[in-house]
Amino acid sequence: MQFRYLGRSGLKISEITYGNWLTHGSQVENDIATQCVRAALDAGITTFDTADAYANTKAETVLGDALAGERRESLEIFTKVYFPTGPAGPNDSGLSRKHILESINGSLTRLKTDYVDLYQAHRYDFETPLEETMQAFADVVRQGKALYIGVSEWTAEQLREAHALAVDLGVQLISNQPQYSMLWRVIEPEVVPTSKELGIGQIVWSPIAQGVLTGKYAPGQPLPEGSRATDEKGGADMISRFMNDRVLTAVQELKPVASDLGLSMAQLAVAWVLQNDNVSAAIIGASKPEQVHDNAGASGVKLDADVLKRIDEALGDLPESDASQTRSPQGRPS
Question: Is 54 marked active-site?
Fold first, then answer.
């Protein structure tokens, strides 16, 4: 396992990070989830990402149980705040001071830890002054409940404004967590250049495009049983943008590229995002331990210019690169 600095900080994280969105507490049973976490540890992964909203707090509990007994100093544990938790009352979502300070306490309890290494704003909150949000995050850091702060799916302008406030408050905003894959490149035009300037690293989610880039979805063929595309709890909605014959046919053209390199399709997809020098880590998820070991095999893989060209030629104009696709809900979800 290779390690990278997170942004312009001194914190090193495993370049393959294990995340439990849409799996722990929801898609898979707790014992399988624990097996996946153990597989991640066995593969050398030290960085784990979750959020209080995943499975309405259950995912944090499962992760906390799975990591119990591990040396805390040898792990990097990340979580997030913004989306509704609990009964979804008027203050159970967003980035108000009330919700942030209450949420961090709940997350620490569920994760069975005194602090998280990174506390992230899961989306931008248009209904709360940014100054209030950043002050609350700064207080969380000063209380020792988080070491660093980050955000997720924020635009370049939002990153710049938040970074300036963080500097004024004397805390480190070091990361952004966007969706990024061969098929979804919207961070490249604006977010990545701004992040490089500000010293913010990307912790990217869905590097295999919710499983599409594994090649398991063939055009005109039935959906594999138990796959993300059949998950009515949210997975099918997320993957739907890629589930068309043009995309699925193009993805099949990547199989010889992966084969020539001795890689699985998933490894090729994860390795691709890691070629971006602003990417600090790629988040992988899993519903079985074997997937963890396979994805972790992408660590340290270098793709030369000819390989990157073959990938671009296979995908053509299919990848989305419109910067305006980076956005947060205009109103707080309920």
Answer: yes
